[in-house]
Specification:
Length: 334
């Protein structure tokens, strides 16, 4: 006999009929013994401790939010022909080890989901219109994703849109009326300045280091030479949204910008910080504990169980624990 503990979530994405030996076409979550336990199956009779125990632990972040994405416009994917935004993503995650998506071709529901923990939206130079249009069209989806635990960085140094632009999130705006040549840390102890990559402290200098400043964006992290916030951090629900007016494509791509490598490492730390903070937390719900099944007696639900990616399996640690349980979003082999 096998023993299965199933954690079900009422906030659901897919129907999940489960049985011992079921497989799926999803991700192969093989050998993930570090995953939080929400399904167990063992080859021996349960002890009283197992019978009485209730399992309702958080789902492993590695399962729910393992991907990151960079949004740019097909009109100008590399503003000013420079790649500081892409270089930072490569430095943190590895070359090409992130989703390269565009405002023109990528539906929001394909990226602002539980599989992504950090999303960077860049719209500098002549690509601001595309960023703002995408943000406006998908504001609810994007804000819900952040509120549920995602980390978002919206940044643009615009030469296209003047005046003040609405970024949502309760009244955050970006204004393109000043072009500061310096930036200084407003919260020196913040992780974007202290690591993991060092040295990352300022002040930072470069011609038109930023184009835009932020209003109502939460805590000011970097202030421009005119006293305006050019990078801010806002706690929003369970997630974080950062807003910037940095001329990011120039970072690491202009030898006259100083100090080097401090600017590059600060920008990489910003990405690391948001990625580490990100990860959509699973909704909570009732549990079905210690239901027994085998090849001859599959576990079935009527009506079909509705669940999200929060339905996972974990190795119970017993040496004879073998088999496959599929969730419709992936499968686990022990």
């Amino acid at each position: 006999m096998k023993k299965i503990t199933l954690l079900t979530f009422l906030l659901a994405l897919v129907f999940v009929p489960l049985s011992y030996g079921q497989t799926s076409n999803g991700l192969q979550n093989n050998g993930l013994n570090s995953m939080s336990r929400s399904m167990e199956y063992i080859d021996q009779a349960p002890t009283q401790e197992f019978q009485n125990r209730s399992v309702n632990e958080n789902i492993s972040r590695s399962l729910l939010s393992s991907d990151v994405a960079l949004f740019t416009s097909t009109v100008e994917p590399n503003p000013w022909g420079l790649t500081g935004h892409r270089d930072a993503m490569d430095a943190v995650f590895g070359s090409g080890a992130w989703d390269d998506v565009s405002y023109e071709t990528t539906p929001a529901i394909d990226v602002f989901d539980a599989n992504h923990s950090f999303i960077y939206m860049e719209g500098g130079q002549g690509s601001t219109t595309e960023l703002l249009a995408y943000l406006s069209a998908n504001q609810g989806t994007i804000e819900d994703w952040v509120s549920n635990g995602g980390s978002l960085f919206i940044n643009f140094a615009s030469n296209e849109v003047g005046g003040t632009s609405d970024l949502g999130f309760g009244g955050v705006t970006s204004t393109g009326s000043s072009y500061p040549n310096t930036g200084s840390a407003s919260v020196p102890g913040h992780p974007i300045f202290s690591g993991p990559n060092v040295p990352a402290t300022g002040p930072y200098a470069g011609f038109n280091f930023a184009h835009n400043y932020i209003t109502n964006g939460g805590t000011t992290l970097i202030t421009g030479e005119f006293g305006n916030p050019i990078v801010t951090e806002l706690s929003f629900g369970s997630g974080i949204a950062m807003f910037g007016g940095l001329t990011a494509p120039f970072i690491g791509n202009n030898g006259s910008w100083t100090p080097i490598p401090n600017q590059e490492l600060m920008f990489q730390n910003l990405i690391v910080y948001l990625f580490d903070a990100g990860g959509t937390p699973p909704p909570t719900g009732p549990t079905l504990d210690y239901t027994f099944c085998s090849e001859e007696m599959p576990l079935e639900f009527n009506p079909p169980l509705v669940a999200s990616a929060g339905v996972v399996v974990a190795d119970s640690g017993f040496p004879n624990d073998t088999g496959i349980v599929g969730t419709g979003l992936g499968e686990y082999r022990s």
